[in-house]
Amino acid sequence: MSTPPLFEISGLHAATVEGDIEILTGLDLTVGAGEVHALMGPNGSGKSTLANVLLGSPEYHVTAGSIRFRGEDITEWPADVRGKAGIFLAFQYPQEIPGVSVLNFMRQSLSARKGIEMSVLELRLSIMEWMERLDMDESFAERYVNEGFSGGEKKRNEILQMAILEPEMAILDETDSGLDIDALRVVATGVQEVRRDRPGLGVLAITHYQRLLEELQPDRVHVIVDGRIVESGGPELAATLEAEGYERFEHA
Fold first, then answer.
1. Judging by beta carbons within 10 Å of its beta carbon (0-12, 13-18, 19+), is residue 108 exposed, middle or buried?
2. Which of 90, 191, 222, 240 is the most exposed place for a label (fewest CB within 10 A)?
3. DSSP states of 150-196 as a string?
């Protein structure tokens, strides 16, 4: 019996709850264990909507199609159940959580993910090890989540979460947004560092820019236009998009 894909999206249609506006219009995408896929497309094409739908955001509802994770239909699962099962979303605009330290946030998140209460000491040792690997200052653990963080620190914190929570599938929603080239390289290096520890991790990187993909080296690149994937190819497709833009796909 063959092993099912890690993550499989079939004929996905989704609309906003408010106004019932359809944004995803029949999207198909399959990610195998250990694969890195990139999703690129013009503004308004449905990229961030897809990320939100995959994590079960209540702002959208699936009107047709399915989402399967390790062979199991998760289309109706709420966001917290998806997270506990091993699906991770790195947000484009991470939220501030005043009064909650990075360490305590991680402890509560990991306890929920693993279903066991984690000790602060046990988690601190793991966090400090990962902070060193991600070139982060130790004081970061005591700061309140994203409060006063620079853009690069917010994104690096997302990668730290991904390392600690040990998901099976990571969705990076425009993690490169607003980063300079040095910060982008740090984030991309962090993703690769996590993948070295967890070679079976599947990654879907949603991005506007080829520069992130130069660092991540995806196995497949997909173009989304009007809520569906209109072209898929190897890394060379990203270079084509960088040079030519999306115009020929928008009229496909």
1. middle
2. 240
3. -HHHHHHHHHHHHHHH--SEEEEESTTTT--HHHHHHHHHHHHHHHH
The per-residue pLDDT for range 52-93, each reduced to its tens digit, is: 999 999 999 999 999 999 999 999 999 999 999 999 988 777
Q: Phi first, then psi: give them for residue 28, nearest 5 degrees.
A: -125, 135
Altogether, the residues listed in the chain come to a count of 252
pLDDT band for 246, please (50, 70, 90 cuts).
confident
From the list 209, 173, 212, the residue with the least C-alpha distance to 192 is 212
In-domain check, residue 234: yes
Q: Over 80: is that where the pLDDT of 118 sits?
A: no
The number of distinct structural domains making up the chain is 1
Pairing of strands 22-31, 7-16: antiparallel
| DSSP string of 225-238, one letter each residue | ETTEEEEEESTHHH
For residue 147, which phi and psi values (nearest 5 degrees)? Answer: -80, 115
- The answer to whether residue 229 sits within a structural domain is yes
The predicted model scores a pTM of: 0.91
Confidence of residue 148 (pLDDT cuts 50, 70, 90): confident
Residue range of the domain that includes 14: 7-94+167-250
**Contact (CB, 8 A) for 173 and 10:** no
Q: Which residue has the tokens 């130790």?
A: 138
Strands 228-233 and 220-225: antiparallel
Q: Is the pLDDT of residue 251 over 70?
A: no
- Separation CA 237–CA 13 (nearest Å): 25
